[in-house]
Amino acid sequence: MQKKEFSVTPWDVKGEVDYERLVKEFGISKIDGKLLNRIKKHTKELHPMLRRGIFFAHRDLNWILDEYEKGNKFFLYTGCGPSGPIHLGHLGTWLFTKWLQDVFDVELWFQFTDDEKFLFKEKSFDEIEKWTHENILDVVALGFKPEKTHFLIDTKHAGLMYPIAIQFAKKINFSTIRAVFGLENDANIGQIFYTSMQAVPAVVPSVLKKKNIPCLIPLAIDQDPHFRIARDVYPKLGYYKPAIIHSLFMPSMSGPKGKMSSSEEHTAILTTDKEKEVENKIKRYAFSGGRDTIEEHRKLGGNPDVDVSFQYLRFLFEPSDEKLEKIEKDYRSGKMLTSELKKITIEKINAFLKEHQKKREKARKEIEKFIYKNSS
Amino acid sequence: MQKKEFSVTPWDVKGEVDYERLVKEFGISKIDGKLLNRIKKHTKELHPMLRRGIFFAHRDLNWILDEYEKGNKFFLYTGCGPSGPIHLGHLGTWLFTKWLQDVFDVELWFQFTDDEKFLFKEKSFDEIEKWTHENILDVVALGFKPEKTHFLIDTKHAGLMYPIAIQFAKKINFSTIRAVFGLENDANIGQIFYTSMQAVPAVVPSVLKKKNIPCLIPLAIDQDPHFRIARDVYPKLGYYKPAIIHSLFMPSMSGPKGKMSSSEEHTAILTTDKEKEVENKIKRYAFSGGRDTIEEHRKLGGNPDVDVSFQYLRFLFEPSDEKLEKIEKDYRSGKMLTSELKKITIEKINAFLKEHQKKREKARKEIEKFIYKNSS
Questions:
Q1: Longest Cα pair distance anywhere in chain A, in angstroms?
Q2: Do B175 and A159 touch (CB under 8 A)?
Q3: Model pTM greater than 0.90?
C-alpha cells in the first residue's frame, strides 16, 4: 500500500489531502449520524455543509451540546488571515459560522490575524493592513449580527491580546512548535510565538466577563494544529478547552483535492470578480470531470466527484439536496454536459456575488459596528 | 593560562565576570580618556560612575555626541525587570540615567519588562504586577523629570509595542536567539520572542514623531545581548542603531565579582530596608577586605578592591573622589578598620534611603504623570 505524500499546516497545504489520515494524525473525531441528529434537535434543519460531510470532524462537540442543553451557551470563534483578496474558498467556514450564530443565537469573535500574515508572508505591513481592511468588508457583507459579533485585529487589539498570549506562550516550548508545524531554527521568532496569539480569542469573552464560557471554533482543518497545541494549555490556565468543528478544503480550480489558495489568485474566483471574469475563469480553468468529446461523455458519463464546478455547487451554491442530486445523476449518466454544468455554476456564483458585492459596498459604512472596542 | 568560567546573560550572571573578555566577546568599546573629555565638554563635570570607570564601555557613543553637537538631540532608554524588590544594585544605572537626563536635558523612555519577568520566572502574573507597581515607586522616587519621562509597561502598552515588536521579530530567527542566549528547544515561545519587545522602546519616539531620533541606552552589561541582536535589525527597518553605554555590575554582598541579585533578597539591601536592617546586613553579610584580626589589619592593611562596603561607596554613595581616596588609602594602610569602613557605608546608605523612602511614599501620587498615555 503506497502512502500518498501530502502535508497540511496552517500556512501550506501540499499534495492530495487524505482526510481519513488527517483525522487519525490530528486525533480528531468524525461527525457521525448520531451527532448530526443531536445537532438537528436544536437547529431543526441541518446546514448543507453538515448534511454533505463538508464539516466532517470535530473535537468535543458533544460537550458543547451538553453545556448548551444545560443552558450554558457557547460562543463562536473563527478568523481570517489577511494577506490577499477573499476567494470562494474562504467563504465556506464563514457562511457556516453565520448559520451557527443564527440557529444557536450566540456571540461570535472573529479574529483577523494580520500579525500572522505579516510574519509568514514576504509582504510589508502596509500591504497586510490593506488586505485586512478589504477582507473585513467581505466578512461584514456575509451578514453576521453586529450586536453579537466582535472583530479582533491582532495588532490593533494587541493591548488586550498580548497579555493573554504570554500566558499561553509560557506553557508552550519550541520543541512542540517544531514537532507540530515543522518550524526549524531559521523560523523567525514571531512565527514561533504566533500560536499564542491564535489561542487568545477562545478565552477573550471568559477574560472579559471573568467567568468560564464554552467556545466552539469552526475552521478548515489546516488550522487545527494551533489548537491541538493550545488545547493542552487552556485547562492549565483555568479555561475550558475550546471545541472545534472541522471542514474539508474547498477544492482549487485545478482539481478536487488540495485547497483553494491565494497563490492561484489568477484562477481563484474572487469575491470582487465581475460576471464576465467568473464566466471566463470557470470556463477556462475549472477542472472538469467530463469526457474528451461530447460523444464519449454521452456514452460514458462525467465524474462529478472530481469536477470542480460540481464541487462548488456541493460546497456552497446549491442548497437543495434534491437539485444537487439531479445534477449529479444527470452529469454522471452523461445526460448533462460539462458546458451545461459550468453554466449552472457560473449563474449560481454570479447570483451570489451580485448580492455579495452590493453588501460589500454597504459594509464600508458598517465596519465600526463590528470592531471590538477595547476598553483598556 | 587558565580560562575562568563565567557566563553573562540578561537572566543570569554566573561566576567571576571578566569584563575585559566581555568587551571582546560582545564587540563593544572601552570608554577612554578622549571620550571622557568629549563628554565633559558638554556636561562640565563627569559623573562619578564615569570618572571611576563604572560606566566603562559603549557602542556608538561618539556618534551620539556627533549628532548632539549638530543639534540633533538623542533620547534615553533604560528599564527595569519587575520580579522582586529593588535593591541597591539596581540603582546605579538609573541614577546615572537621571544624571544624563539632567545634563543633556533629554527625554527618557523607561521600560518595565513585566512580560519578560513573567516568561522567565516561576512567578504568577499577579505577583509580577505587584512588583511592577512597587518598582515604579522606586523609579519615580529617583527624581526623573515627569514632563520628559515616559514609562512603558510591556503588557499595558502592548497595543503600541506589539505591532512594532513583530517588525523586529520578522528579522530575527531562532538560531540567533539560541546562539546569543543559549536558549534551547525547551525554551518557552514567549522567551524566544521577548528580545523583540526589548528592542521596541529604542524606536518608539521615532515611530510616534515619524522621524528618526537617536537613542542612547544606559544599561548594565548583561542587557547588551538583546541589543547586540536587535542592532542588526534597526537599520533594516529604517531606524538608527541605538547607542549604548555599559556599566559593571554592582557587587553582591558576598564579594566583589558577579552581580547583586534578587535571588539573594535576604542579604541584598533593599530600598525599603529600615536603618537597623541595613546595619545588620552590612555588618553581617558585606564581604570584607579586612584581615582576620585587628593586629594583622593594622600591620598588613585591608583590601578595598574586594571589600563590598568600600565598593558601595565607590559605586554609589561617596561622590567625592577626594574623600573616597582618603578612605581607600586609610583602609589599604590598615589605619581604617573594617568596622569603621562599614560604619561609614551604613551611614551613607541610610542617609540615602531615608530620603529615598520619603520620595518613594510621595511617588504613590505621582505615578500617573509618568505612565505613557497611549493615544491608540
A1: 69
A2: no
A3: yes
Using a CB-CB cut-off of 8 Å, the residues of chain B touching A189 are 169, 172-174, 177, 192-193, 195-196
Q: Kindly determine whether residue A118 and residue B186, on different chains, have CB atoms separated by under 8 Å.
A: no
The fourth-level CATH superfamily of domain B262-363 is Tyrosyl-Transfer RNA Synthetase (1.10.240.10)
Question: What confidence tier does A15 reach under pLDDT thresholds 50, 70, 90?
Answer: confident
C-alpha–C-alpha distance, residues A279 and A284, integer Å: 8
Q: Which residues pair with A153 in a beta bridge?
A: A112
pLDDT in tens, A144-175: 999 999 999 999 999 999 999 999 999 999 99
CATH 3.40.190.10 describes domain B18-248: no
Residue A261: predicted pLDDT: 64
DSSP letter for each residue of B171-225: T-BHHHHHHHH---TTSBHHHHHHHHHHHGGGTHHHHHHTS---EEEEEEGGGHH
Under the banding of pLDDT at 50, 70 and 90, the label for residue B2 is: very low
ipTM > 0.90, yes or no: yes
Mapped onto helix, strand or coil, the DSSP state of residue B239 is coil
Out of 3.30.530.20, 3.60.10.10, 1.10.240.10, 3.40.50.1370, the CATH code matching A266-363 is 1.10.240.10
What digits encode the pLDDT tens for the residues A347-366? 999 999 999 999 999 999 99
A6-254 CATH fold? Rossmann fold (3.40.50)
Tell if the CB–CB gap between A196 and B189 is shorter than 8 Å: yes
